[in-house]
Amino acid sequence: xxxxxxxxxxxxxxEVAKTAQRDFVIMVAGVFNYLCDTAMGAYGxxxxxxxxxxxGAQIRENTLHNLPQLLEEFEKNATSNGIQVLWAAxxxxxxxxxxxxxxxxxxxxxxxxxxxxxxxxxxxxxxxxETGVKIYEGDLGEFIVQQRGTLPFHIVGPAINLTVQxxxxxxxxxxxxxxxxxxxxxxxxxxxxxRDKFERADMGITGVNQAxxxxxxxxxxxxxxNIRWVTSAPRVHVALMSIEKVCASFADAxxxxxxxxxxxxxxxxxxxxSILNGxxxxxxxxxxxxxxxxxxxxxxxxxYQDPHLxxxxxxxxxxxxGIQCPIYGRVGAYPYGxxxxxxxxxxxxxxxxxxxxxxxxxxxxxxxxxxxxxCPGGTPHLDLISxxxxxxxxxxxxxxxxxxxxxxxxxxxxxxxxMQNPAxxxxxxxxxxxxxxxxxxxxxxxxxxxxxxxxxxxxDFPQLPEKSFRERWQEDLQREAAQLAGSAAAQQEAAAHNYxxxxxxx
Amino acid sequence: MSRREIILERLKxxxxxxxxxxSIMSPEDEAYQGEVQIFIEKAIAxxxxxxxxxxxxxxxxxxxxxxxxxxxxxxIVADEAITRQIDWQKLQEQAGFLVEFSSELAGDAxxxxxxxxxxxxxxxxxxxAETGSVVLEHSRASERLVSHAPDHYMCIVRKxxxxxxRLVLAGLLQNYQSPPAAWTLITGVSxxxxxxxxxVLGMHGPRRVTIFLxx
Lengths: 506, 215
Ligand code: SF4
Prior knowledge:
The structure holds two protein chains of two kinds. Chain A has 22 helices and twelve strands.
C-alpha cells in the first residue's frame, strides 16, 4: 500500500461527501466510547480511572527512560529462550530481513495476525513483489481490506466503514463467496476459507503487543483466534516489533493490557492472550520450530533523542484517541494516507515520514484535546502537534521539515509579535478588519490573496464584525461606569437637597 | 557497527533519559484466593458455558451426555492428571466416539487428528476470577491446538486454581523456574465484530466453550 499523507485534502474532500459513511462512523464512535467508558468503570470512579491511566503513563515513561537497557535485556533473555532477535533500521531493512527468512525457510504460504507495524513497513506488498509468496491476513477485517486493496479504516476495525453489502460483494469477487448479507454466514465462509490456509502455512507473521524484558516473553492479544493459529501451526514464526513495545515485567505488561483492551474494544480482556516464550520444545508438536523477533526502528531512535519528541513513543495502539477525534470522525481514515489514522498517527507520522509530507496531518487538528484526555499511555498529543507546526514554520532538517516561505514566516512572525503586544494587536486588528472585510460576500470571506490564501482553500470565514469583542467589552464597561457615576452624582445631589431641606432656616 | 549497535548507541546517547527503578506495578502475591462466583459470572459473560459440578465423576457423566447429544465423533484430550481421572474407555464404549490423548500421537498422525477432532478437552494451570479466563500451560502433554482447532472446547477447572486477578498471575509467571514455550489465556468464545459491528461468535477458534468447575 502506497503511503499518501500528502493527499490528505483531496481525499478528505471525497470522504466528507460520503454522508452515510460519516453518520455510521460517528454512530460507531459513540458506541465504542460508551463501551470503553463502561469498561474503564472496572477501576472504580473517575478518580480511580484517572489513577489507572496515570499508572499506564508511568509504565510507559519508565519504558522510555530505560529503553536501550530494556531492549538489551529483552534480547538477552529472548535469545536464551531460543528466539532469534534481528534489528532493522528502517522499513526497507525490515522487509529485507523477513524476505531473507522466507528464502531461508523455503516458505510458500504465510498467514498473518493483525500487525500495524507490518502495515507501517509495507511488508505484504514487498514480499509479494519480491518473493511471490502467498500471504493471507488472518484477522477478518484485515482480510477484507487486503482483498479490497485499501488501507485499514481503523486499527481495531479495519473494515468498520464497510456495509454488509460491500463486504459481501468484495468477498464474492475475490474468494468466490456466495453472496449473503448475513454476518454469521460471511464469518462462517471466511472461517472455512482461512482454516485451510492456517493449517498449511509455513510461516506465521505477527506483531507484538508487549515484550517483557525480564523474561524475554512476547504478549499478543486478539479476539478472533487468528494469532493462535499463526503462532501454533506454521514451522516458522516471525514477530515484528517496534522498539518501544518493551516493558519491564509481567505486572507492568498486564496493567497496560487491561488499559489497552478496555480502551480498544471495551473488554476487560480479549478472548485470547498468547504469551510466547520461545519456539516449541523438542518433544512438542505445536508451535514453530524457529522463532524470530525483528526489532524495527524506522525513525524512532532519532525522535527518542529529543526530550519532547520521544513522547510520541508512549502509544500502546489502543485506538481510543481516534474514536474521540472530531476530525477523524468526519473524514475517516483514508485521508491520513497511512496505517495509523487520527491523533495516534498525527503524533508519529511526522517523525517517520517527515514534517513536509505530513503537514496536513498535524494541521488538521483543532487542538480540542479529546485524544489526550483518554490516552492510557499519557501521550501529550497537543504539545506534539503544536511542536510539529512550530518545527515546520522554522524548519527542521532532522525530521524533513523545510522552512515555510519567507512570506508565511513573516505572517507568523507578525502575528506572534502582535499577540504579545496589546497596542500592536489592537491597531493590527483594525487594519486587518478593513482589509479582510473588503473581500466579504454575503457576510463570508472565501479567499484571500497572499500568505493566508492556503487557509481558505477548505474553509470560509465569517466577516469580521464592526467592533471586536474587546472593543465592545470596553464600551460596555465605560457605559456602565458612566451610569454608575451618573447615579452616584444623582444620589449626592438628592442627599444635598435633603440636607438643605432639613437645615433650611425656618 | 552492526544495525543493533547503531540503534542502541543512538538510544543511549539521549541525554534526558534517567535509567532507574524498573517495574512500576508490583505483583500481588498474597491474594491467591479467587472468587468462584465472579469467575463464573465473567466466564459466562464472555460466552462460555460454565457448569459447577461436585467431582470428576460428574464431569465424566456430563461429557458423556454432551457428546451423545451433539453426536461428537472425535475427541482429543490433553494428557494431564485431571483428564486422566476420567474413564475414557468406559465413555467410549457408552457413547461410541473416538478419543486420543494428544501425547500419544505424533507427527502427521497428531496433526491430522487434532485438525479433524470435534472436541478438545484440557485442564488448566490457573484461572482468573477478574476476567473469567483459564490459563493453559502448553507442553507435549497439553499441545496448543487441542484447545483451538476443534469446534467445541472443554476445560476442567478446580476451584482452588482460581486466582483473584491478573496481577496475581503476573507474580506467578514472572518467577517461573523453567517457563513453557507458551501460555494461553482463554476467555470465552472466539469472536469478531468486523462485519458492520455485528458480534458473531466463533471466528477462528472454537464456537463453543464449556468450563467444568469442580471442588
Ligand atoms: S495515542 Fe494513546 S489513545 Fe491513541 S492509540 Fe495510542 S495509547 Fe491509545
